[in-house]
Amino acid sequence: TPSACAGFSVLHRPVESALIGGRYDRANTGQNASPVSLDAAKAGRIGLTDRQFSPRVGVLYELREGLSVYGSYTESFGVNNGLSATGEAFDPECAEQWEIGFKAESADKRLTSTVSLFDLTRDNMLTADPADSLFQIVAGEARSRGIEADVSGQITDRLKLLATFAHMDARYVRNNDGLQGNRLENAPHSQGSVWGTWQFNDAYKAGLGVIAVGERMGDAANSYRLSGYGRVDALVAYTQRIGQNRLTAQLNVYNLLDKKYYASGGGRASIMPGMPRSFLASVKYEF
Fold it and tell me: Cys-Cys crosslink for 26: which of 37, 51, 247, 276, Cβ 3.0 to 4.6 Å?
């Protein structure tokens, strides 16, 4: 999935830091359908080659111990896999993002936080075809602007917390199919989460988290809204040391209260319900 993002670690010394990088992509795609055979489909396949260089630059400066300011610019590129009603291949999606913000750390190094402003523009993004939701169309250009904030750290020797919040405005800013000015589907104005874990002892740990998502548009035409929802997740874990190694067994419970909600919309004919209460067990061995 194309994305444009950049991040930096909090610096513990009064220094400046700069990042310069890039990525070159070359992608070969093609499609063709034949009711006769796979070989016939391959023979009539129409290929398409896309290529692009995507730069990434950023700078971070520590204003004083524990407080840094940063800025970054990133571009990205990705092939659009999908099916149009006419059978034509889609142009690749490109994106660029500007981001500025602050990073802070408490004097005892137990808490860290980040506040950032971002502006993300995506070209040639796909959306459901309003005439037939089984197909897709290139929606033109969409822009997301907003603010993100997070705080995490060790509150006590046993309690660890992570809180996040994001508020953004995501809209189509250029479109040839009447979508210009519409809100981007499945993009809430606001969303946030709070997650905490309690370490009972060296062996046992439990966690509880709440995720809140605001209302969203269900389709690109903004013909209906999906209501906001809240969801509770939880986990329990047991860790056993085996010599210098560690074995951890963990059980995650998603949607603990079995909340019924709509997770996303895919057009006028498709709405995805949220996942009911589910469980995931895992075992990890560290050596």
Answer: 51
